[in-house]
């Protein structure tokens, strides 16, 4: 079995963790550094088995801090790189995720969420890292975060995560949850020629003219492989287009504004949504991950009773789909958001809706999914 087996074409019955691992391989990922942690360990185990067969490098690091550092280094060496973790490990990675944002390092971080805080519920589900995904590191920066609702999406969207990381030169977070990670379903892997991962944007000019942070017109700089005779200076300090530290307000404005705007200015291209029965909806359920799947039963029950309920499923959670949410908030009477946390993405929903319609949160502390009856009751309450 060689490189031609990187894409296991056909129909499989995989859990979300295995599907994610296979999606990473299909996307061209060939470096993994990580540390085992429930409920993401199966991804690492699968990659450890498969990487020797496709020319990849797998390293079990001493902890999550080192794992994230190794991923950043591998990316600058020219390799598509990733790591996986869960709540406590995700916390440990935050400083180096911020370094990845500042150094514009393309990579993918998979967080299979479990109940927290602290050690919490290692084997049971949660969606309690969503706000940490957005603001977990310090300073101003923008990040991209996707959330799958099925093993099929774990395969498909992992490829998308790598594509986005390469296109915008930014760490991309894949916010799975334990239920989706451990759920086994049919996963269809297409023919290899139909999987066309985005390649890195390589610099093509003279070596002495290369500037690692000089952006193209779209705000994203091309890259080179470290060690190929280019002058490269990479630092977490505020820096100019050469990568050299410049400690003043003017350079801070140039540097940080561009980091933020290359995502904000392209938000409409980045955001992915799944809409169900939205056209005539009077109450809209806004959800992501496993919570969206549970909410379908509540929506169907409401429909059976004459309530026009619909679904806006967030595939991209960060950047938040502000434009579409505002449009729909002007159309519906209410928006209901179930989350397996006590109010994280809901805060963003409230901010964007800004009183255009009613909003209702359906919280859950974690450990299991919502009872659809609770979501149904919230929908009914919003129609009274």
Automatic annotation (TrEMBL):
It comes from the Bacteria. Keywords: Oxidoreductase. Pfam families: PFOR_II, POR_N. Residues 281-375 form the Pyruvate:ferredoxin oxidoreductase core domain. Residues 22-248 form the Pyruvate flavodoxin/ferredoxin oxidoreductase pyrimidine binding domain. PANTHER family: SUBUNIT OF PYRUVATE:FLAVODOXIN OXIDOREDUCTASE, SUBUNIT OF PYRUVATE:FLAVODOXIN OXIDOREDUCTASE-RELATED. This is 2-oxoacid:acceptor oxidoreductase subunit alpha. It comes from candidate division WOR-3 bacterium.
């Amino acid at each position: 079995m060689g490189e031609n087996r990187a894409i296991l074409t056909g129909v499989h019955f995989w859990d979300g963790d295995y599907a994610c691992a296979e999606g990473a391989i299909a996307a061209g990922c060939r470096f993994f550094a990580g540390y085992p942690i429930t409920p993401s360990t199966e991804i690492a185990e699968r990659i450890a088995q498969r990487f020797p067969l496709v020319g990849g490098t797998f390293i079990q690091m001493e902890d999550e801090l080192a794992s994230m550092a190794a991923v950043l280094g591998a990316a600058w060496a020219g390799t598509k790189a990733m790591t996986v973790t869960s709540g406590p490990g995700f916390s440990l990675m935050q400083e180096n995720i911020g370094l990845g944002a500042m150094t514009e390092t393309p990579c993918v971080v998979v967080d299979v969420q479990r109940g927290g805080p602290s050690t919490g519920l290692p084997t049971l589900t949660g969606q309690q890292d969503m706000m940490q995904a957005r603001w977990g590191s310090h300073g101003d920066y923008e990040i991209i975060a996707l959330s799958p609702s099925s093993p099929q999406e774990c395969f498909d969207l992992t490829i998308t995560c790598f594509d986005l990381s390469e296109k915008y030169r930014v760490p991309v977070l894949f916010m799975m949850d334990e239920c989706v990670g451990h759920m086994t379903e049919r996963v269809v892997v297409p023919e290899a020629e139909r999987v066309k991962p985005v390649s890195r944007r390589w610099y093509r000019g003279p070596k002495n003219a290369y500037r690692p942070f000089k952006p193209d017109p779209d705000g994203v700089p091309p890259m080179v492989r470290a060690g190929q005779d280019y002058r490269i200076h990479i630092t977490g300090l505020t820096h100019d287009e050469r990568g050299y530290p410049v400690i003043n307000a003017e350079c801070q404005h140039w540097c940080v504004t561009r980091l933020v705007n290359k995502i904000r200015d392209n938000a409409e291209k980045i955001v992915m949504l799944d809409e169900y029965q939205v056209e005539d909806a009077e109450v809209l359920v806004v959800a992501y991950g496993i919570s969206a799947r549970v909410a379908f039963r509540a929506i169907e029950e409401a429909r059976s009773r004459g309530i026009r309920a619909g679904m806006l499923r967030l595939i991209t959670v960060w950047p938040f789909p502000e434009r579409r949410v505002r449009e729909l908030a002007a159309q519906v009477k209410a928006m209901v958001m179930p989350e397996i946390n006590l109010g994280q993405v809901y805060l963003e929903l409230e901010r964007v809706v800004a009183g255009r319609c009613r909003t209702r949160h359906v919280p859950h502390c974690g450990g299991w999914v919502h009872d659809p009856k609770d979501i149904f009751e919230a929908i009914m309450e919003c129609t009274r």
